[in-house]
Amino acid sequence: MTTWSFRATVTALALTALTACDDGQGGAFLGGLGSGPNVALSQATMAFGAVTLVPPSGFCIDRRSLKQRFALMARCDKLGAPSAAADAPLGIITVSFSAIADGAELPTPAHTAQALSLQDVSSLQETENSVVFRANGPSPIEGMASQHWRANTRVGDQLMGLALYGPEDGRAVSHEGRDILLKLIAGSEPAS
């Protein structure tokens, strides 16, 4: 039963991310960075009110990407808020949510890698409620490295799946990327 929960949860995360891209929230969003009106948000209520998503310092949520179970974040200056960008690295963070049963274990990096066709899982860091790791896999936009950071974390009754992509050899794909995801988790957990 626990194994089924893992597979169902990882599959839900994969479908959520793919649905968002199919609805024009992936590549179209990335092509529009830096143009148009300010679309930067400093937080958003997600998963039908179950989670308050709080970006790490220097990142903002793109208002255009928001769905109840999906959001995209980028460095704030790319979303029309230059003063909020601080010293954040160039990168894109995707966030998806799915319900997780009370007591169910988080998907392991191996489960996530299998569900999302990822390879070369490394740099694993686990806590009681989260797992962060680096892996290789398809990037959402040309110019982003295939190596990126992933995280799965429990926030209340929701499983939050995170991915951080950055340019090849950029700061977001270095070990700094793990800290960015950990700060996102640390900011969102107490706010929810």
UniProtKB/TrEMBL annotation:
Keywords: Membrane, Transmembrane, Transmembrane helix
PROSITE patterns in alphabetical order: PROKAR_LIPOPROTEIN
Transmembrane residue ranges: 40-61
Protein name: Uncharacterized protein
Source organism of this protein record: Sulfitobacter sediminilitoris
